[in-house]
Amino acid sequence: MTAAALDLSLAPLVGAALLAVAVLHYLHYARGRIHLPGPVPWPVFGSLLQLGEDHAQTYLAWSRKYGPVFKVRLGEREVVVVNTAAASKELFNDQGSTYISRPLFNAFHKVVSSTAGFTIGTSPWDDSCKRKRKAAATALNRPAVQSYVPIIDRETLSLVEDVCKDGEDGSQSIDPYAYFQRYALNVSLVVNYGSRLDQVGDSLLKEIVEVETQVANFRSVSGQMSDYVPLLRHLPWNAAGTASAGASTRVRRDKYMKLLLDDLKARIAKKTDIACICGNILKDPEAKINDAELSSINLSMVSAGLDTLANTFVWSVGYLAKHPEIQEKALAAINDVYHGGIPDSLTEDVPYITALHKECSRFFSVLKLSLPRATLGDSTYRGVHIPDNTTVFLNAWAIHHDEARYNDVDVFRPERFLDAKEQSVQSHYSFGAGRRMCAGVFLAERELYIAFSKLIYFFRILPGEEDYDIDPATACANPRGLSSAPKPFKVRFEPRNLSSIRSFLEEEKTKAEHAMAAGIGAGSTAVEKEAAAA
Ligand code: HEM
Predict the structure, then answer these.
(1) Which sites bind heme (predicted)?
(2) pTM as predicted
């Protein structure tokens, strides 16, 4: 027999051996480290190609098949997805010290963040992250936020003034997005840097919003297939695309972060600065926060509340415009407490407005998959071992559709949060859960409360000329983005009483000057103490 004939006769054997290796490799891959139920993965891609456009909605459908906690394989990564309030409590609260870290992803951590570092919300848990989180959480705790109310009032003044002016006293419909972006960004900028951007069309404001939206796309756990399939990173067009888009986003971001910091340092040198979180750390010789940690706190303050708050507002305003009956209930509730007067910002004493912003957060769930977590150490769920360094998604969208928790999940009903039973349980999961829950929750809720109460008190919000869809299940403009936004639409802010708006604006302008001159109060001392203690 010739060598060639021998080779040929061995070919089926070699083929069978290769096939056996491939099958064994696939079985090992499909079984993985975590033995929870879940969809059968495809080779290489796992379940990535079955997830559709809106991953959170697909996970909700899968949770009905595989149970409240299931495993999904995304390329090389196994992910545990948590879909009910009860399961969230079992893992994120009862085993809080294990469900405390954040996973690393290629596009965001290696490409976009290589210079300025990670935000707090994307930092794995270690001593440095602990210091950053403590400093931010202290600067954003309840008493600190109470001292920021004049700053929120200052932005509410601009909000009321500009929707009135640009909407020509309610005769013109406007796209509400930019107004809420400025509101959210300015509160964070004043609290952190003691400076604000005045105009809705301000070029720096536009730049920050545009770049932060791009960063959010890199951060999204549903956006970058190459985060899960390393092979894709090496395809020339993909590698070049991610590297150049990531680098340009990073360069643009570094530029305005430096500008904001340099501007504050210049004001400190001239002694014209006002009290603010970053200034207090810079001026404190005892501060235990190093430059990299300060950069991380600054990044978090600029980005964390921007898309999340603006998107919650825009969805809600679009919904309220189509539901005048909810606006009238809210106004009646305000009038019950203030007898026709302007609602106060210093106290949150209209329970219906609190219930309204909670229902908006639940119903629209802007961070549908929250921010991803990683486990620090081994844990178990119902006897199934979940190993160290497992990526975990909290599916807030699914929890908000958990009938065992909310009953009539598809109905927008603020009243559900007025129920006395509600006071003893976590209202909703839009701010996450457990030990890495949103550090800005008190500030965000205060911003929601103040803006809703003032807007509803001063205006009738009406839909624009063109009809629009505002159902969060179908109207999302960016289902693969980090924070879901509705497709653009317009509304009208029709003044209920123009002269009362004018006298409010006049009075608030005087107060606003004092607020800006004072800077932040309790938060600043809190941060100083924290930095010293850390
Ligand atoms: C409606 C507005 C907001 C929403 C829906 C929101 C939502 C979230 C969520 C879901 C997380 C992750 C929580 C988890 O893993 O369990 C988070 C983290 C965080 N948020 Fe917010 N957030 C909002 C506003 C803000 C604001 C205004 C700030 C501060 C200015 C802020 C600061 C942070 C920080 C620092 C983290 C990281 C916490 C950590 O990783 O330890 N957030 N936020």
Answers:
(1) 438
(2) 0.93
